[in-house]
Each structure stands twice: as structure tokens, then as C-alpha cells.
Prior knowledge:
By secondary structure, the protein is an alpha/beta fold. The protein has helices spanning 3-19, 33-44, 59-72, 104-116, 159-182, 202-215, 248-251, 258-266, 268-273, 287-300, 379-393, 395-403, 428-440, 444-467, 485-498, 528-532, 534-541; strands at residues 23-28, 78-83, 122-128, 132-139, 142-150, 225-230, 234-235, 238-239, 281-286, 312-317, 321-326, 408-412, 415-419, 474-478, 503-506. The protein contains 17 helices and 15 strands.
Amino acid sequence: MDLIERYILANLNNLLISFGGVKLKIYLNMDDRALLAIVKSSIDKFNIDVPKNNRKGYGSYINYINRINSLLGIDKFSIDYIDISKYKIPEGVKEYRIYNPQNRSKELEYLIRGTVELKGRSFCGIDIGGNSIKAAAVVNGEIELLKGYRWFPDDYKTADEINNPVLLLIRFLSAYIVYKYSYKDDPLSLGNSEVFEENASYKCIEKYTKDMEALINSDTRIFDGVVIGFPDIVIRNKVAGGETPKQRGIRNNSEIDYDQEFLKMSHLDILAKQYIKENGKVRILNDGNIASYVVSVEHAFLDENSIGNSGMFAHTIGTDIGTGFISRTGTIQDIPLECYQYVIDLGSLNESRYVPEDARSIRNLNTSISGSVQKYVSQVGLIRLGIKNIQNDNPKIYSSLFEKGYLQYKQIGGQEALVIPTEPVDKRGELTRYLIELLNNGNMEIEKTFLQMGEMMGKTMEEMKFFFYEIPTTRLISGGILATDICFDLFHKGLKVKYPKYEIQRLDEDVIKSPLLKKLNKKNRNYISAVGAVYIINREFI
């Protein structure tokens, strides 16, 4: 593919995954046949005119844009070509701003009240991740229970496999709280049960939930509100994307109609409502938005608020890189903002020849598009770059990765691929911890890896600046990969090499100031989003 065409594609890609929309108007010299051919050739890659939402590659974004538009009751996405002579500078009042506060002082008041006026209400917060689900029960302003659940949604084949663990956790937390206050003698011996282990199976949790429900003589639907952080685009309480890696197994299931199956995920709010109080509220939000809201809350308690007047972006660097928007008043943005699918690298064509699942590939696991953020600034990126650097410079450690069971070769699509095993045991987390252990022991290859990740974070920020120019080039960063000082410092150093004016800050315990979150033990800080999510729903009650 010609470099110019790839450049146009990358920019259109980044534009569409940021905003979605109904119509894109492209102004150009319509008499320039060569230019018109290049632009139309690029647009063809999106397969806009395909009637069903089963597009691949760049067309994946049109799938979710049309799903969003359908939920909003508006037209499908389309593109118009218009001669440049008819172009007019848009009116300033029509210019999009991600942050438009109506009454900042009033909104800030409710932001803070939502965190402290928790008495008399019961809430459940759920944070859905790529490797685990974190659930928290907050009753009368106290954290009653935290429960984790390990899973691997990428391999699931039906929507029920996504929905059911979430619904079961709501039931389990509800039943446990009622049971706890009904039976002081603990007839089920829950205190010594394996059900509280994060790797407890679905069947184990289901059994104990049913056992508690059978013993309880009263209604277990105790929650006034439930907030679920879902790792996908969420518009007006509905999961609206359907193109994430976590839904890949369902999309590839030839025995179902994916759009029909996806509606079951989209209606998670309705399914959850049956397990809470009759007049209770369920809110489904993008997980990055919840994390960003929590940051807004914590900054509201600081003497000096470092969030600029226009707000700032935050990134959670986990299995992928999540993106959320932080404002001084706790704004929930309503655009896709799928940053992990930004194309930031037009080169590395040699590494594009591998299938996406190959540890050496720079092709997105979801779309197969080359050069996206996912393969540079995430757990996936850490593993890819780390393996590449070790293979090039440290053959002894590279061989040991196979001996330890972290790497193996596997046939995928007729091609021999280098993969990290996920069955019978998911080795991704273990490999990640091993690479960081190497770094702590002075390994130069992993040091180089974090420097490279930091540099590509800068490139990501630069691309986002093109579309959100009013937002300062400062980012708040969180995630277990950068939890240690050595990892964060190298990442920061890598950013500064090519982007000295850009800045990142780490979300750590020094920022936690709200009374409820301060009650979390340090070992449970990965439940911040699950617990903090209750602030959002409580604000609605106030």
C-alpha cells in the first residue's frame, strides 16, 4: 500500500475512533483525479456500503459507529466528497468541545456530595477488566465486601458468558451482606470458604450464592444502585461498540448472528436491574470513564487542583490502554475515544507479516490493522517489545522463556505463530511479572522496553493533540505495569527523549483523599474503580 494512502487511512482511522458520527465531509480538489483516486481508495478500506455490521479491518469502526447511531435513532454513517471551492470555516459556536460545564460551582458541589453523603444507601460497583472482574459492595458509607473473579473473555462464544459472571457477582454480594447480618454463627462456613479466592470458579460462586439465598427468608435485593464499568463504548447506558478483543470469540462464532447476540450485552442494564431494589438504578459506563471520574473526585479534595480548565486525558495501562477524560466537575464524555486503536506507526512492515496473535506482530488483536497503540503501550506492548529486545540481545534468556512455558509455537491460520499460552493456564500475567522481575534485577533489554513504551506514549499524545487541541499535553497514568518507581521512571524518561514538553503523572495513593477510598487497604488498591464507581450513582440520588 502506498505511504500516502496509509497516512490518509491512519488519520481517518484516528478521527473516526475518537468521535464516531453520522457524516464525514471530505473537501478536496475534485478535478485532481490522482488525488481523488488515492482518497477514494483509502475510503474503500472502510467498506461503508456493506449492509451488515460484519466488516473487518478498518470497517470494524463503521460497525460500532452504526451500532451507536442505531441506539441513538440516527442515520448510518456516510461520507460526502465536496469540491474544496465550497469549503467554509465552520462557525465557532458549532466547534466540538469535550468539556462544556453549565454551572461549574454547582457541579463541583454535587461531585463532592456524591462521595460523602452515602449513609442510608447500598451500592454495588463493578470494574470489568481483561483478566478479572472486581466487584465492591458499599453499605451506609462502609466497604462491606470486595470480590474478584478471574476470567478470559477473549475466548467466550456467547453473550451469556460475558453477562452471567457480572450478574452472579451482584447476586453474590447481595446475598452475602444479608446472610452476614442474619446468621452470626455462619452455618455455611463462609469464613473459611474458597469462594473468596479470586480464582474461585463460576460454579463455586454460584453454589454459595444459591446456598445463601436458600437460607435467607427475606428479599436479597438490597442495592439501591449498581454501576458497571464495561470495557467497551457505552452510550446512554447501553454497551454500543461490540468490536473489542474481549468480544472476539463471540464475533468469530459462526453458529450465531453476532448483532443479535450483541444486543444481549447491550441490554446488560436491564438484566442487572432484576437483582436490585424495585426502584433502584443501574448505570453502565465505559471503564475508562469511571476511572477518570474517580480521579476528578480525588482532585476535588486536593488543595491545589492540577486539572486544567479544559480537563485532561487519563490512560489506564493494562491488558490494553484505556482512555478516559477528567474534568474538574466529573464529566462523563459521550464519544467513543478508542485510543488503544489509534494508528501511531506507519513503518515496521516486517512485523506486519505475522498474524495478530503472534507475540512479534504489530497488528491489532481486534482489527488486524498494523501500528496501533495496543502493540506499543500496554501489557501486550510490554510483552511484544520485551520479547523482541531479549531475542535480539540476550539469547540465553530468550531460550529460557520457552523452558519456563512462557512462549511456544502454534499454528494459526496456516502460519507458525509465536504465542503466550492461555490454556490450560493463562501465562500472560505470569510472563509480565517475570519481565518486570528481570528489570528489577538490572536487565537492559527490559529497561530498553520501557523506554520504547514511553516514547510511543508521547507519539500517542501527539496524535490525540491533533484532534483535541484544547486539551493540554499532560496525562494521568495508572495501571499495574507502571506501579513500581523503576517502571514509571523509565517510561517517563522514554517519553521525554522525543517529547520534552509533554508530561505524565502517576495516579498513586498520594492522590487518594476521599473518605471512602481512604478506607481501602493498600493491597486492595486495584479495587479503586469498583469502589469509586458508587460515587457516580450516589450523585444521581442526591
